[in-house]
């Protein structure tokens, strides 16, 4: 009985030693590695968020610039002299200020209305207007930033 | 091999760990400061762009525009035949200025 007790005590001691050995001496380094990994993950996430913010900012900035230029083109168009509009785009440009405006008959309404298109870098703005004596009069509030016709080729 | 074999390394290992930890933490703190600043700047510029656009949309009625504290804006106009080229510049503290311009021909 005593021999068994001594044997079990030795066995427990050995087992305890075995359990202790692998963690001995490396715990601090392991902690550093864990902290480093967590830190890197955190920084990666931050970096990703930062990139998203920057991209978002650039997109908005481009949109505002394109909108302003397209709107400016439409404003400039009303000061220009235009001939009778047809079903094909009739365009005028002011290259110094990168303004480009086109007009055509509004297909969805009766013949007295025209569509004015202001364009800048593939961004298009459309406005409904009337033409009298070669001068355009814009219809208040009737603007769209997409093709007002159900067929996209109508706006190309 | 006895336990005594491992005991001699713990202090050096601890010192190396502290050194590594300090270097890594300094790097991380610096990196996070730069990132936070970048995000903050981008957010401010984004708000300024939106406000400049709003000012142009409201022009010539710009009295109701409320900019954040210490922000300033200026409206510059240039004539081009019948049109006015309106340029809005917004100054943000510790960031670059923001500007947008639009033509107005019906004023």
Describe this structure in words.
Chain A: InterPro entries: DUF2509. Chain A: This is DUF2509 family protein. Chain A: The chain crosses the membrane at residues 21-43. Chain A: It holds the Pfam family DUF2509. The complex is a heterodimer of chains A (156) and B (107). Chain A has 156 residues and is α+β, with helices and mostly antiparallel strands. Chain A has a domain at 60-155. Chain A contains 2 helices and 5 strands; from the N terminus they run H-H-E-E-E-E-E. Chain A has helices at residues 2-23, 27-77; strands spanning 90-94, 99-105, 113-120, 123-132, 135-144. A 5-stranded antiparallel sheet of chain A has the order 1-2-3-4-5. In chain A, a hairpin with a 4-residue loop joins strand 1 (90-94) and strand 2. The model of chain A has no long low-confidence stretch (mean pLDDT 83). Chain B is α+β, with helices and mostly antiparallel strands and 107 residues long. Chain B has one domain. Chain B has helices at 4-7, 10-58, and strands at residues 72-80, 83-91, 98-104. Chain B has a 3-stranded antiparallel sheet, covered by helices on one side. Chain B starts with a helix and ends with a strand. The chains are: A alpha+beta (156), B alpha+beta (107). The interface between A and B is large, with 36 and 40 residues.
The percentage of residues in β strands of chain A lies in 25-35%
What value does the average pLDDT of chain B take?
85
Please identify the structural class of chain B as seen in this structure. Answer: alpha+beta
Give the count of helical stretches of chain B: 2
Classification by helices and strands of chain A: alpha+beta
Number of strands of chain B: 3
The SSE string of chain B, one letter per element, is HHEEE
**Cα end-to-end separation of chain A:** 100 Å
Helix content of chain B: 40-55%
* Rg over C-alpha atoms of chain A, rounded to the nearest angstrom: 36 Å
Q: Please, what is the average pLDDT of chain A?
A: 83
Order of H and E elements of chain A: HHEEEEE
What percent strand of chain B? 15-25%
């Amino acid at each position: 009985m005593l021999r068994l007790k001594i044997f079990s005590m030795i066995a427990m001691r050995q087992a305890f030693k075995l359990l202790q050995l692998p963690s001995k001496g490396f715990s601090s380094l392991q902690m550093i590695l864990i902290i480093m990994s967590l830190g890197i993950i955190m920084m990666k996430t931050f970096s990703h968020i930062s990139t998203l913010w920057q991209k978002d900012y650039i997109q908005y900035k481009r949109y505002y610039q394109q909108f302003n230029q397209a709107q400016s083109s439409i404003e400039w168009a009303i000061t220009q002299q235009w001939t009778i509009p047809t079903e094909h785009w009739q365009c005028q440009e002011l290259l110094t200020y990168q303004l480009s405006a086109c007009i055509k008959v509004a297909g969805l309404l009766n013949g007295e209305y025209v569509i004015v298109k202001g364009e800048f870098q593939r961004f298009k703005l459309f406005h409904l207007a009337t033409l009298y004596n070669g001068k355009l009069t814009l219809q208040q509030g009737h603007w769209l930033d997409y093709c007002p016709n159900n067929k996209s080729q109508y706006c190309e | 091999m006895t336990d005594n074999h491992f005991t001699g390394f713990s202090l050096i290992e601890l010192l190396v760990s502290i050194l590594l930890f300090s270097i890594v933490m300094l790097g991380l703190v610096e990196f996070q400061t730069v990132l936070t600043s970048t995000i903050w700047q981008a957010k401010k510029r984004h708000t300024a762009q939106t406000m400049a656009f709003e000012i142009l949309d409201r022009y010539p009625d710009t009295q109701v525009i409320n900019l954040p504290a210490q922000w300033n804006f200026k409206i510059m106009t240039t004539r081009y035949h019948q049109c006015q080229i309106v340029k809005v510049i917004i100054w943000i503290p510790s960031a670059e200025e923001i500007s947008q311009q639009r033509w107005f021909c019906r004023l």
